[in-house]
Amino acid sequence: MKTGIVMALGRLTVLPQIGGAAAAAQVEVQQKAPFGDFLADGSGRALYMFTADHGTQSACYDACAGAWPPFTSAAKPSAGSGIAAAMLGTTARKDGAQQVTYDGKPLYYFAGDSGAGSTAGEDVDHFGGSWYLVSPKGAKIEKEDAEKSSSSKW
């Protein structure tokens, strides 16, 4: 497995697949309170969307891509259980890599996440936009909404 070491927000992190695309990236659903269901890669690492992106075009390069590495794939990405295959796609980055998209939104890792299930990048303002986990419906997951729904009792 390829790895890369990245410094983000003062934390040194080793991420899988930095600098190279997985043969065929897989997107799956993970669950964690208070966020509920969110997108993750095939290893369970959280995937994020960036509000500064324009449609399917990434606005995250250079230092931004060091802190928020793009989720790339050398082949058509595959949909795990709970993922709508029709919502998966790719978009070309400036370097020619194919970044995985979901519902037209480019997907990213966060270098500050410690591994599978870590969601430290949720609702972070960084590099001119905000970063959010993505629901299986393609919507951003906001902390306030997640906390309200997890505290609601019948």
* Uncertain stretches of 5 or more adjacent residues: 1-20, 150-154
SS content category = mainly beta
Shape: globular
Mean pLDDT, rounded to whole units?
Answer: 86
Any idea what the radius of gyration is? 14 Å
Q: What are the secondary-structure elements, in order, as H or E?
A: EEEEEHEEEEEEEH
Main β-sheet description: 4 strands, antiparallel
Proportion in β-strands:
25-35%
Number of domains: 1
What gap, in angstroms, lies between the N and C termini?
Answer: 46 Å
Indicate the multimeric state: single chain
Total count of strands: 12
Give the number of helices: 2
Estimate percent helicity: under 10%
What do these coordinates show?
9% of the residues lie in helices and 34% in strands. It has 154 residues and is mostly beta strands. The protein has one domain. The strands form four sheets. Strands 5, 10, 11 and 12 form a four-stranded antiparallel beta sheet that branches. The longest helix has 9 residues, at 143-151.
